[in-house]
Amino acid sequence: MYVRIVRPGAADRESEPRPIEMPASLPLLPLDLDLVRGFRFACRPDCGLCCFAEPRVAPEELVRITTARPDVQLRGHGRDRFLAARPRGGACQFLAADRCELHALRPRPCREYPLTVHAGRRLQVSVVLSCPGVGLEPLTSDRPARDRPDPFGLGSELGSLEERRKAARRSPIFETEHRGRRVERFLRAAGRWQDDDEVRRALDPRPPLPGPADYPVAAPPPEEEGLERLPLFFDGRAGPVAFAGALGGWDLLELSATGGGRSLGRFVPPERPPGLDGGAARLLSGYLRYMLARDAFLASVHLEMLDTESGSVTDAARVALRELGATVLARAVVRSKLASRDRTVLTEAEVAGGIRATDQDWLDRPTWGDRW
C-alpha cells in the first residue's frame, strides 16, 4: 500500500551515487496544491484500507512511540524505519477492532492519508483515489484545477503536511532534482526528451483510451509472492479485498487484519475492452487526465524509458495511459463479477470501482523522485 517499501528504480541503478554538496541554505518550497482542489473527504471508520501498510516513522516520532509502546516491532530499509505490519498480508500491528491503538501518536503518513506528496522538481500534493472516503466528482469537472474550491475535510491532513514542510532541515527536492537532471540528460542525448508541459499539452485534451491491443492486461502478482504485494480495494467487507494472479483467472481474497486471506472466488478478466456508458467514459477520461497531471506518473515513465531504445516521452506516456486505462477497466469488470453483475457495458459507478482498485497500485511504482 501507500507506505510500503519501494524497490529501487532504474535511475538508482544507473551508476554509483556521487556525493552531492548541500548548500548552506535553501528557500522554503511551497506545497503545490492544485491537484487537491475540489476534492471532498470523509473517513469511513469501517474501512481500514490504509492500515494494511507499513508507515514510515520519523526519528522524533520513533522516540515517542517506543516510549509509549516498548513492544513496537519495526522494519528497516536503508536509513528509514517502518512500523511492521502483521505477517501474511496483515494490517498494522496497532490495528485492533477497526481502531488504531496508536492514534494519538500515529506517524505522519497516517496523519496525512489520503494525501500523497511527490518530491521531484516541486512538492506536488495529490489525492490517493483508492481511499473510499474521497469523492471522485472533480475527475468529471470541466473547471481547471486552479479554479476549483478548496478541498473539504482535508484540513488536518494539509496542516500536517505544512508543519512538516516548515520543519524540514533540508530541501526535500535538492537530491531528487539532481537525479531528475541525470535522467533528462540521458534522454536528451538520445533525442527522446520532452518537457512535462509539452507532454501534457499533447495528451491532456483527449487522453488515449485503451483499445483491443491493450488486452489482456498484465495479471496481478500471484498469492505465492506474498499477500503484502497484492493490489487492494475496499468492498464493504470486514477486510480489504486483494487481486491475485492465478491460472485461469484472478483470485479475489478477503484479507484479515491478523494475516492471511479468504478466497472469494476466481474470476476471468476481460480479453477485450468492455463497453462504457457516457458517464463511465467521461470518468475514465477524467482519471487519465488526473494521472497525467501527476509528476509521479511522468517520472515513472522516464524511468521505464531508460530500459527502452526508441520513442519520445509523449509516446511512452501514451502507452502508459492506455495500459492504466485497460487495467482500470479490467479490474472494474472483475469487481462487477464479484458483485454478481457480469456487464458488457460498464456504468460510471463500476468504473469508479476500477479506479479505486488501481490508483494506489500505480502510485506505488518507482519514480526518480521521492515520496515525501
Question: Please, could you describe this protein's structure?
Answer:
- The protein has eleven helices and 15 strands.
- Helix 5 (174-189) packs across helix 8 (295-305), helix 7 (278-293) packs across helix 9 (313-338) and helix 7 packs parallel to helix 10 (348-356).
- Helix content is 33%, strand content 15%.
- It has one domain (10-14, 26-215, 272-371).
- It has 372 residues and is of the alpha+beta class.
- It is globular.
- It has helices at 10-13, 59-68, 108-112, 155-167, 174-189, 196-203, 278-293, 295-305, 313-338, 348-356, 359-363, and strands at 31-32, 56-57, 74-77, 80-83, 95-96, 99-100, 115-119, 123-127, 232-233, 241-246, 249-255, 261-267, 275-276, 345-346, 370-371.
Can I get a quick summary?
With 372 residues, this protein is of the alpha+beta class.
Residue-averaged pLDDT, rounded?
91
Strand order of the largest sheet: 1-8-7-15
Overall radius of gyration: 20 Å
Please count the helical segments: 11
Tell me the total number of β-strands.
Answer: 15
- Given the helix and strand composition, which structural class is it? alpha+beta
> Which ranges are low-confidence, i.e. pLDDT below 50, for 5 or more consecutive residues?
1-25
Q: Estimate the strand proportion.
A: 5-15%
Shape descriptor reads: globular
Total discrete domains = 1
**Helix content range of the residues, please?**
25-40%
SSE series: HEEHEEEEHEEHHHEEEEEHHHEHHE
What profile does the largest beta sheet have? 4 strands, mixed
- Span of the ends, CA to CA: 15 Å
